[in-house]
Design goal:
Elements: H1 2-13, H2 16-34, H3 42-48, H4 51-60, H5 69-94, H6 103-124, E1 126-132, E2 137-140, E3 144-155, E4 161-172, E5 175-183, E6 189-191, E7 194-210, E8 216-220, E9 232-240, E10 246-255, E11 258-265, E12 270-271, E13 274-278, E14 281-291, H7 295-321
Antiparallel strand pairs: 1-14, 2-3, 3-4, 4-5, 6-7, 7-8, 7-13, 7-14, 9-10, 10-11, 12-13
Helix pairs in contact: 2-5, 3-4, 5-6, 6-7
Amino acid sequence: MKKNVFQKIFSFLKSVKLAVILIIYITVTSTLATLIPQGNEIAFYKQVYNPFVSWLILSTGLHSFFNSFLFLMPVVLFIINLTVCTSTRFVRELFNKQKKRFGPDIIHIGIFILIVSSFITFFLKQEKFFYLDEGEQITVLDKYTVTLKSFKELRYPDGRPKEWISDVSIKENGEEILSSFNIEVNKPLELDGISLYQYSYYNLSYLILESNEGKNFKLPEGHPIPDGTNKLFFKKALDTGYQKKNKVIIIQERENNQVIRQNEYQIGEYIGDYLIKGAPNNLISGLQIVYDPGFLPVIISFIIILAGFIITLIQKIGDKKL
């Protein structure tokens, strides 16, 4: 009795019909899920969609589909189906006294690795965007220290942006492993599963103040004016006038993180007891770090699948010649 139950379960798991149904289900539902913004608050869906559609999306889990039981369970079942089919066929071919054909098995193994790699990418992939000024640094994965040595923006003669280049140095656990590397838009830095891309740049304003005692302060935008009140904040310095030679300095007054009012100043004017000496702008580099532990297995899976197709094709050609 137990043997019959086991055989039924085994037959069900290796069924081609089950594989076809799962493939159709995963394809259709994944396509539908890509048409719906994922991971937003419940209020978002109730606001964007009509009551019935929002109820349907929320009740079926389509708003967070790729983390839901409705997606994960069929995929796991498909992996089991693929594993059982592949192992059963491989064992049969292994003991087959006639010509052995392992091409389809190799293809199945490649598909299996591809699916597992996709799961690894989905759950473990990390992306981070950040801006660095010259001399600033950031720590990546508690292992690498990235320091921006210089940043250049190149332009065409007509003024259009041509290239952004970040010269960085890298330390691993405190020891320098790369003294200089130019990261460009289509030239990322690759480090042991980490990719560092040139993503953008930002025109950062600074405010230079002089106190009554003659002490200078250099404040980046967003920082408070050091007058002890912690209410005045430097927002931005804008270029105005002919050939953008003048500056408008925007100062915000805040209470409880709320902007109460916003005032404009010029170089040479006073903010309280501080004289505005200057407001230079500086281009800072926008970089993107991508850590994807599933990327290499994906490449390996494609190579295995390709090898399986080639072996199968060679055997088919050999059969025709016979």
